[in-house]
Design a protein that fits this description.
The chain has 484 residues and is an alpha/beta fold. It is built from 18 helices and 14 strands. The strands form three sheets. Strands 11-10-9-12-13-14 form a six-stranded mixed sheet, with helices on one face. It has a four-stranded antiparallel sheet with strand order 2-3-1-4. Strand 2 and strand 3 form a beta hairpin. It is globular and about 75 Å long.
Length: 484
Amino acid sequence: MPETPLATTSTSGLRPSASYSITMRVRLQQRPGAFARVAAAIGETGAILGAIDLVRVERGEVVRDVTVACVDAGHGEAVVLAVGSLDGVTVERVSDRTFLMHLGGKIEVNATVPVKTRDDLSMAYTPGVARVSAAIHDDIEKAWSLTIKGNTVAVISDGTAVLGLGDIGPEAAMPVMEGKALLFKEFGGVDAFPLCLATKDPDSIVAFVRAVAPTFGAINLEDISAPRCFEIERRLRAELEIPVFHDDQHGTAIVLLAALMNALRVVEKRAEEVKVVVVGAGAAGVACTEIMLAHGVRNIIVCDVEGALDPGRPGLDPVRRALAARTNPSGERGMANDLLAGADVLVGVSGPGAVSKAAVRSMAARPVVFAMANPEPEVRVEEVGDDVAIMATGRSDYPNQINNVLAFPGVFRGALDVRARTINEEMKLAGAQAIAGVIGDDELHAEYIIPSVFNRDVVKAVALAVSRAAEVSGVARRPAPATT
């Protein structure tokens, strides 16, 4: 079993999870109760004991691989120290299971046709392939059916806004983009390939994507920092005849709206009547606000670190100035904690501790709180869970996880199915409605407003709804399928 370094990130206050799981190779004496001491030491650290695998037995000793879920790297080190300090117990090596999963990368290219004979070779490559190339030259639309284009997405990033890590560069962004490609394939049956760019210049990024676009049926922009991401997406949408979709914006927004639709059903409030405070005016905050406005929410106040957005506030870039002009209808001023008084919904897309528990407790009756910063939310479930009607986070270890995986595989599947020219607001709204609709009236309750990412009905429902919306709105090159 190869040794790998433990990650150095600290995330105090969180629960143990597989993302920080380690496997220890432990040698101990073969006698009754020996492993019970190891298990007790692990339990005393607050870690969760997982798999226990026998490696070998030799000369009165037993060697086992013991898997443990920890909170963070520091917690893992404490577990190893606790086990290794036991009399008669030796920890021979420690492996970080997340690092092991990433060895060699998480995706690969596989052939779809065999090349076993001269006939195979002559058709797949020269001379037969020339006829196919000539056919595409005569009719470029045939590239959709005669190449990988019709089922392939480029995942484009410059590594400037990766998860909670920020600007870490293109090489460090690759594991995230590989993961995105893996999820495309697993959930949507879409072939995706990561392209991480060694430039932060919007002109260079736009030029690169424009140059590689003939290979792909759609472009997924990922983890590009604001406000550059707005300009890059706007320019590419205007220049390309294939969908360009910044998932940090629109994927988040689609799932947020689905959760909001169902949450309002539970608390029996109407979208046009609620007051919503959005904490965070980055890419996700802007997109979430836009889709809620499109859905009919009228009273939205967007806050950044300086307080409520207002058209007259100096220093706003064009995107946020335009958003400010269409939100905050009462002209409220102040910081997010002040503005939450009497609000019905909190949408957090900022960072840990962005709002206080006292501010949440000042909200209207039966409030809805979406604290989506990950891994540490804007306000913790343990602090306000008993004070709100519904709470959702971006994490998988609490109910109601708002996760982009619910949106992007089905959205791109639907767009590719009809060879859409773009992904428009109608398609995004349809995707949100489809996600919300997966949960029936008899299933809906405060801790189940959003389906599981492993519910395979989600992608099917989203793809069909998106493809039909594309057809109705006039951006489809071919009709939507009757079913998915």
